[in-house]
Amino acid sequence: MPATLVGLAWLAFFIFRKWKFRKYLAILGFALFLIFTNDFLANSFLKAWQTEPADLEQLKSDDFTYGVLLTGMTNTLKEPKDRVYFNQNADRLLQSMMLFEQGIIDTLYISGGGATALRKDLQESRVLLSYLKSVKFPIDKVIIEDESRNTVESARFANDYLSKQNKILLITSASHMPRAMGCFEKEGYKIQPYSTVFLTNDEMINPSMFLPSDDALLKWNILFKEWMGYSAYWLAGYL
User: Fold this and answer.
1) What are 134-141's contacts with CB under 8 Å, separation 24+?
2) Which end of the chain has fewer CB atoms surrounding its CB within 10 Å, N or C?
3) What average pLDDT does this structure show over 178-197?
């Protein structure tokens, strides 16, 4: 991760006190700090990677039976258990509910397990199902898959529930979409992406974008995670 790279460079500067090139470690750490806290660079690279928003009017003219929602938006370890605790990825679910209400999708398919060895009741798809019940969402229009632990398994396990004859609407974060599309297309599905959770902005360049920002560091963290994930999946033959 970016913060780790900066920290390692500065840590090495203090450890290798007798190395004649030691000063370059400090310079490297400072340069990495400026790069990874620059919101203009982070915003530009993340925008180039993520999948852009779909055209709603175009989607209304298509025929989607299934909207496939990938999980990763709740904290299942938080107490008490009488409610659902969402994180920033909650936009995935909100957009899915909007797509259903507008008639763009007929059935919401939620894919994601997440149970641990000690807790078998933490499947996130079931947690989301309980939330949908609490807001009176028509549960007869919801299918859940609660065994997958990652995007590869989500795509593979979908074979037990979904037909490959019609195009499916894939709903996940914009930064995660390239990897998710690759996994589902590898399984033979025809995909229409519907990106959510946009952390980038479309504003004109302003001076504040060049000041050190923790938002920029968050964007770089997401990018590094997706770059490493995509590369690992490609090397493993999942894409």
Assistant:
1) 134/84, 137/97, 137/100, 141/100, 141/106, 141/107, 141/108
2) N
3) 96
